[in-house]
UniProtKB/TrEMBL annotation:
Species this chain originates from: Adineta steineri
Main location (coarse class): membrane
Keywords per UniProt: Membrane, Transmembrane, Transmembrane helix
Residue stretches spanning the membrane: 31-49, 61-86, 116-138, 159-179, 199-219
Domain of life: Eukaryota
Domain G-protein coupled receptors family 1 profile residue range list: 1-223
Protein name, per record: G-protein coupled receptors family 1 profile domain-containing protein
Any one GO cellular component localisation term in the record: membrane
Annotated localization: Membrane
InterPro entries per the UniProt record, alphabetical: GPCR_Rhodpsn_7TM (IPR017452)
Amino acid sequence: MPIYFYHNSYVIPSTAAYCTWWTYFEYSLNLISELLMAVISIQRHIFVFQPRLLNIRLKRYVMYYFPLLFCLIYPPIFYLIIIVFYPCDGTQWVFSSNLCGYANCYLLYNKMLSSFAWVINNGLPSIIIFLANVVLVFRVIQQKRHRQQLISWKKQRRMALQLLAISSVYMIGWIPNLISGVGQRIISPNFLAQIQLDYLLDLIYIVCLSLPWVCCRLLPEFNKWIWKLFCSGYVIRNNVGPT
């Protein structure tokens, strides 16, 4: 949908229904991505330091499955209520801007609801992602020192760079928009509004475009397989013969 808009420089079809569902799907997918990464960043501490907790069925459901299920269910329901079912006449949409000018009624007319969406839904997960990954690096190093284990600074540096890279993707994509969005609710509706619309909101696309490549760096065996497959002409062949 964004690519189609950038190609035509106009929202087609130019209807309120199309803008409503476009924002609904995009907001839901963005929040699902944020919440999943935030929950996984917290769960990584359990996998590293207390993996035996997940051997107990009840704790496994409460600490692992339920949070992941919540990340998938909450965003579509939340935005279905405040975007699709929110009473509005649909005349606020801007068809000459990407995502119809982000002119959802709750963002324009409900300061409390829009602040909740910006701070709790978008800002808090980004901060959790950053803090959880940074703290994990320090906890791993501290535990090895406590056990008087040999610390491989090369491995720790690689782990730190990988985790900080994931955190930075979300920080770059969301924190500038969080600052401008909250400023528009607290200071003035025009606070960085044009800059946000022209530049900052496009930073969110950095998350979905770059995150797969960042995550691939966490899987060295996958990288070797890809390199072997595409750069070395590696092809899996099955030998067929009589039995």
